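Let's practice the habit of predicting before peeking. Look at the sequence and jot down your guess about where helices and strands might fall. Then scroll down.
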Amino acid sequence: MARKKKIIEVEIIDTIFPNKSIGKYEDQTIIFKGGIKGQKVKVLLNRRKKNYIEAKLLEILERSPLEKNILCSDVKDCGGCAYQTLLYEDELKLKEEQVLALFEKEEIKELNYLGIEKSPRVEGYRNKMEYTFGDEIKGGPLVLGLHRRGRFYEIIDTDGCNIADKDFTLIRKRVMKYFREINTAFYNKRTHEGILRHLVIRKALSTRDILINLVTTSQGEVDPNNFTKELLSIHGLEGKIVGILHTINDGLADVVKADKLNLLHGREYIIEEILGLKFKISPFSFFQTNTFGAERLYSIVRDFIEDEKTNIVFDLYSGTGTIAQILSPVCEKVIGIEIIEEAVEMAIENAKLNGLHNVDFISGDVFEEVDKLKEKPDLIIIDPPRDGIHPKAINKIINFAPQTFIYVSCNPITLVRDLKIFMDKGYKIDKMKLMDMFPRTPHVEAVTRLVRELS
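Done guessing? Here is the structure:
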């Protein structure tokens, strides 16, 4: 019998979504985050569950036969990616198998599954990177990069990152060098002392606009003129820096938020173009991190509408209104609901930017706001957060009884859970397609079309 807190060696015999591995030890099932089928690993046994033991991955002892690819020099240390060592075709196959296994487990068989679509870019596809200031070893030199795998306090210099845009690496390295030279202290998450917290870079991949946001505490000063001058002197950028911001954040949580926001140079937004429409993206706007992948994702949504009559469309969990605006040319009216007020403000602004007059956006909780809608929708688009549709809201949404729902999900686990409720209420899955928006990570988007069965 395996003991709690014991370190053991196991071979990964299978994986399940999202990026969880299964091994066997003394007739016990061991499940832990990370790993690839076929690897031999060292794990630490933790909590005992009903049918398995939860463990923590400590070390990869032997590589899997599937691992044929090493394009990132930081693959052993960085916690950002899971599948850097797989060929892209094998990564897609793995994601596909894991998602379909979720449907099989719940005995959802009639899927009309249309396959998984590749990301248009596999390398350099991210249009946003959030870097953290810290040190790689205690007392070592200042580092600006990503968290070490499985560690909260250690940061590594991610010089070999291949999913970030090349301009991000140039900017990150220059900023790290600048603050090293003037000996500026990073914010220590243990003592809550220090200045430098994060560097957030966004780039519009179509227009090549670059927005840089330095996040610090108020415990020290950053010379705005020298910092701006340093950034604007960077040579070799493919894009153009259109805005430089300085955010003050004195919160204890390790998240980027603004107690105060100062504009140091240019403007506070970039402009991205998708499917002929323009979108202003501010420092804290949500926008898909894979621009060209988002074009394919939204094209799938548009294709799933087919040629049916779509006079009135509800876009629930509408974010910054991207889907609503892309659908507006083929609809009489689109109504979007989103709880984040800033996102709604940006959606309204973007609709004006694109000259769209048949889209309305409502700021509020979907659970509450759907009760206030008087229109009868022909189609409802649902694009909820990772937690899926709120249990109290799902029946209200289904009770609108449109002929068609299109459910866009970034979490197949909650998608399957929600789809079962739709099916119990008289809808069937007409078709489903996966879109790989996040190469080298375990995440994947799913688009499902549901139609009401004739009674």
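How did you do? The mean pLDDT is 92.
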